[in-house]
Automatic annotation (TrEMBL):
Fumarate reductase/succinate dehydrogenase flavoprotein-like C-terminal domain boundaries: 537-671
Positions of region (Disordered): 1-41
UniProt superkingdom: Bacteria
Record-given protein name: Fumarate reductase/succinate dehydrogenase flavoprotein subunit
One Pfam family cited in the UniProt record for this chain: Succ_DH_flav_C
InterPro entries found in the cross-reference section: FAD-dep_OxRdtase_2_FAD-bd (IPR003953), FAD/NAD-bd_sf (IPR036188), Fum_R/Succ_DH_flav-like_C_sf (IPR037099), Fum_Rdtase/Succ_DH_flav-like_C (IPR015939), SdhA/FrdA/AprA (IPR030664), Succ_DH/Fum_Rdt_flav_su (IPR011280), Succ_DH/fumarate_Rdtase_cat_sf (IPR027477)
Domain FAD-dependent oxidoreductase 2 FAD-binding: 65-476
Xref: PANTHER family: SUCCINATE DEHYDROGENASE 2 FLAVOPROTEIN SUBUNIT, SUCCINATE DEHYDROGENASE FLAVOPROTEIN SUBUNIT
Keyword line: Flavoprotein, Oxidoreductase
Length: 672
């Protein structure tokens, strides 16, 4: 077992100073602070900020233009709400319809502190569970606001007609999710994200019909326009015609989702990317906690090198499914139905008796990795290792009957059967952790504004609410909270300074942004190398998963940085992009996205190297307790790492935002 005490390395630390593994890889910068967060009792801060935020009268709203990039729950809800308020909104998505945004893939549910089960839930408990689940690396004020507005989300969605499940008396039903001991998750079978997205989409389409929202589908943002230090528009490419377009506005909102596809294999949609956020980062928006990646414990395991993505099985399955592996390696090849109860290791129930199968995602994921590393994994061997554990519903079927399980999970069971060819009603599912969500993202203040004035960031694209680990059923909650109830109140404080000076396409900053996009496209098409874009993406993903995945070490992260830099240099010299710029060209689309992933991957490794502690799903082998649990170091790392882009070839600049807790005591997590 590695020593849990952190010692200084004389090669890069002065005597008596804490270890800084990333010394030489970055430049220290000035501290950063969230100046918009109100003072006072935490339960009053959001009401205070809403009152203090300046208003925009209705006649002035008609003179203000807002660009929103992304049409998932955060972007769709924001477009609908700002359009309803009377602003002129331009909505962009690279999909052929806003309804295909990746929010549609969320399955299990959405949290809200309604306490319908009368089991002790409250706004404060949801706040506490979220901060604890994030391993005390999230912002206290932001998380309390999220918990506070959660109840409004459910009322809004019910009014829109979202078909939440109901119990026998007609009230909305709830189920449990990992990391909590109450039932607060509202759901629509395993289609919650889809149903919520349809609600937001319908609200947005109402504004399209009213003329307040203009919709641009199959358009990808490729650059942010910054004029006099303020965000004033975007450069986008029409993915069908290839036309490079300039779109100007008074304010820009990024709701473009997360960057989990930096790992190549993830549960994200194939098109999910970091380009919108990364282009903003290169223009001055700080990237916060980029190494904070969520590994989801219930995904269908990898079956070979032919795969280009992984499939999520909803965490809600852990309500009724029991997770186990054989106690003996010799039983791993057996049919699970032939392994008697006494030879099964229900390891989560054994190690964490208080929470059992409902421990948080990071705990469940690492426990699954540990038993598979011991040689007790199940399923087919890939590269000589069995990476799978059983998720068994036999006891639940016996207790509730098959009809009861079908009512709760039928579409999920059907999806599993179609993908694997196995019947989960008869044979236990096999699951294994996979990259799912990112807690890192662009740094924002309490108003959701980035370090670039006029650039607001919502949903998974920002960093603010989840800390080092997102509790299940919180992604939908944050997306809708930001879009419906937070951004519309905070963005008006910025827009109250309008109407703003108009700029046109001939402004030097606009011309420069457009030319940078055109030059980038031309480079990809003219390089005529020998390697495909996908081959670079897959190699990057392997590096990231191996060295910046579920377990990290100083040596491994330094190796990863060297490998990524070498790969990046080769990419710019040797990538081959087929086709032309004036038509639909998916190879060209991927090239731009992978170029940004390569830069992001390097920063993620530097961020992970700097944070020599284990927190959430980010396990540094050098920092663990005697029984192998994650060991935080609050005296050294209780801060948000906000990274500034310093220029190509230059070391990034690290700005630290200290985290202070006034309503919760910071302590080591325990789910035992």
């Amino acid at each position: 077992m590695p020593d849990t005490t952190l010692t200084s390395d004389p090669s890069h630390d002065a005597p008596g100073e804490p270890a800084d593994d990333a010394a030489g890889y970055y430049t220290p910068g000035d501290p950063i602070r969230d100046t918009k967060a109100p003072e006072g009792p935490i339960s009053e801060r959001w009401q205070t900020r809403k009152f203090e935020a300046r208003l925009v009268n209705p006649s002035n709203r008609r003179k203000l233009d807002v660009i929103i990039v992304g049409t998932g729950l955060a972007g769709g809800a924001a477009a609908a709400t700002l359009g309803e308020a009377g602003y002129n909104v331009k909505s962009f998505c690279y999909q052929d319809s806003p309804r295909r945004a990746h929010s549609i893939a969320a399955q299990g549910g959405i949290n809200a502190a309604k306490n319908y089960k009368e089991d002790g839930d409250s706004v404060h408990r949801l706040f506490y569970d979220t901060v604890k689940g994030g391993d005390y690396r999230s912002r206290e004020s932001n998380v309390y606001r999220l918990a506070e507005v959660s109840t409004n989300i459910i009322d809004q969605c019910v009014a829109q007609g979202v078909p939440f499940a109901r119990e026998y008396g007609g009230l909305l039903d709830n189920r449990s999710f990992g990391g909590v001991q109450v039932s607060r998750t509202f759901y629509a079978r395993g289609q919650t994200g889809q149903q919520l997205l349809i609600g937001a989409y319908q609200a947005m389409e109402r504004q399209v019909a009213a003329g307040t929202v203009e919709q641009f589908t199959r358009h990808e943002m490729l650059e942010l326009i910054v004029v006099d230090g303020k965000a004033r528009g975007i450069i986008a490419r029409d993915l069908v015609t290839g036309e490079i377009e300039t779109h100007l506005a008074d304010v820009v909102v990024l709701a473009s989702g997360g960057y989990g596809n930096v790992f190549f294999l993830s549960t994200n949609a194939m098109g999910s990317n970091v380009t919108a956020s990364w282009r903003a980062h290169r223009k001055g928006a700080y990237m916060a906690n980029p190494c904070y990646t969520q590994i989801h414990p219930t995904c269908i395991p990898v079956t070979g090198t032919h795969q280009s993505k992984l499939t999520l099985m909803s965490e809600s399955l852990r309500n009724d499914g029991r997770i186990w592996v054989p106690k003996k390696q010799s039983d791993c090849e057996k049919d699970p139905r032939d392994i008697p109860e006494e030879d099964r290791d229900y390891y989560l129930e054994r190690i964490y008796p208080s929470f059992g199968n409902l421990v948080p995602r990071d705990i469940a994921s690492r426990a699954a990795k540990n038993v598979c590393d011991e040689g007790r994994g199940v399923g087919p061997a890939v590269d000589g290792v069995r990476r799978g554990v059983y998720l068994d519903f036999s006891a639940a079927i016996e207790r509730l009957g098959r009809d009861g399980i079908e009512e709760k999970y039928d579409n999920l069971f059907d999806m599993y059967a179609r993908i694997t060819g196995e019947n989960p009603y008869e044979v236990p599912m096999r699951i294994y952790p996979a990259v799912h969500y990112v807690m890192g993202g662009l740094w924002v203040d309490y108003d959701l504004q980035s370090t670039i004035p006029g650039l607001f960031v919502t949903g998974e694209a920002n960093f603010s609410d989840h800390g080092a680990n997102r509790l299940g059923a919180s992604a939908l909650m944050q997306g809708l909270a930001d879009g419906y109830f937070v951004l519309p109140h905070t963005i008006r404080d910025y827009l109250a300074d309008g109407p703003f000076e108009k700029i046109d396409e001939n402004h030097p900053a606009v011309v420069e942004a457009r030319k940078s996009v055109e030059d980038r496209v031309a480079h990809f098409l003219n390089t005529q190398g020998t390697r495909s874009v996908d081959s670079y993406h897959r190699e990057l993903g392997n590096i990231m998963w191996e060295y910046c995945g579920m377990e990290r070490t100083e040596d491994g992260l330094k190796k990863a940085i060297d490998l990524i830099r070498t790969l990046k240099d080769d990419f710019w010299r040797n990538v081959k992009v087929l086709g032309t710029a004036d038509t639909l060209n998916q190879s060209l689309e991927k090239a731009g996205r992978v170029a940004d992933f390569l830069e992001l991957g390097e920063l993620m490794c530097i961020d992970a190297l700097n944070r020599r502690e284990s927190c959430g799903g980010h396990f540094r082998a050098e920092s663990q307790t005697e029984d192998g649990e994650a060991l935080r170091h609050d005296d050294q790392f209780a801060y948000v790492a906000a990274w500034e882009f310093a220029g190509d070839g230059e070391a990034p600049v690290l700005h630290k935002e200290d985290l202070a807790y006034t309503a919760i005591e910071m302590k080591q997590r325990s789910y035992k």
